[in-house]
């Protein structure tokens, strides 16, 4: 017989944890009603944070309102906002700045498409998983920006001060030229 603890204040034996009923996914009218926080395993802002971790030093992310957006900042003036557009696509919006030196015609990875506001991940869904979406997002950002961490000066005080003043890190050699 199982060793199931009995509640000392009760006259009936304790139920095995597996016997606890799962919350109903449908209400009495047949409407789908999952418990709050159980339908999606992560928020859009989680994708932005995971992408920042993959891109590495010089990148950070912040949650937007309610976690339904995420803002990604890096060594550039441009910031990337993770949003779900009106068609349901995971979209990375941004405004390029001349000082950032983004490629004119980036070679986008498979499954990443241009749109008016930036790029989107074609057929992306939560079922793809957080890690996969972050990897695809990081690849898209590398392509759009031409990002190579070896091109940037993350160490010098001049570059760190420039990032504070302008939002952009200096490229290697820019501090000496100034």
Task: Describe the fold and architecture.
The structure is a single chain. Helix 1 packs across helix 2. The chain has 178 residues and is of the alpha+beta class. It is elongated and about 70 Å long. A 6-stranded antiparallel β-sheet has the order 1-2-3-4-6-5, with helices on one face. The chain has 4 helices and 6 strands.
Q: Tally of extended strands? A: 6
The helix count comes to 4
The H-and-E topology, N to C, reads as: HEEEEEEHHH
Q: Please tell me what the overall shape is.
A: elongated
Mean pLDDT: 85
Low-confidence stretches: none
Name the helicity range: 10-25%
What distance separates the N and C termini?
A: 79 Å
Rg computed from alpha carbons, rounded to a whole number of angstroms: 23 Å
Structural class: alpha+beta
Largest sheet: 6 strands, antiparallel
List its traits.
178 residues; 4 helices; elongated; six-stranded antiparallel beta sheet; alpha+beta
Summarize this, please?
This protein is an alpha+beta fold and 178 residues long. It is built from 4 helices and 6 strands.
Q: What is the strand and helix layout of this fold?
A:
Layout: H1 44-55, E1 60-63, E2 70-73, E3 79-84, E4 90-93, E5 112-115, E6 118-121, H2 130-145, H3 157-166, H4 174-177
Antiparallel strand pairs: 1-2, 2-3, 3-4, 4-6, 5-6
């Amino acid at each position: 017989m199982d060793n199931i603890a009995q509640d000392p204040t009760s006259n009936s034996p304790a139920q095995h944890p597996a016997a606890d009923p799962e919350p109903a996914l449908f209400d009495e009218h047949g409407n789908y009603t999952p418990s709050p926080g159980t339908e999606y395993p992560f928020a859009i802002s989680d994708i932005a944070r995971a992408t920042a971790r993959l891109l590495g030093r010089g990148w950070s992310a912040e949650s937007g309102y309610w976690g339904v957006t995420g803002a990604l900042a890096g060594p550039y003036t441009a910031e990337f906002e993770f949003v779900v557009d009106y068609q349901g696509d995971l979209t990375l919006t941004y405004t390029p700045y001349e000082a950032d030196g983004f490629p004119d015609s980036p070679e986008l990875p498979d499954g990443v498409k241009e749109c008016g506001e930036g790029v989107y991940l074609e057929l992306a869904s939560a079922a793809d998983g957080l890690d996969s979406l972050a990897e695809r997002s990081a690849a898209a950002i590398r392509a759009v920006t031409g990002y190579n961490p070896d091109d940037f000066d993350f160490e010098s005080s001049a570059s760190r001060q420039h990032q504070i003043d302008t939002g952009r890190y200096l490229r290697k050699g820019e501090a000496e030229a100034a």
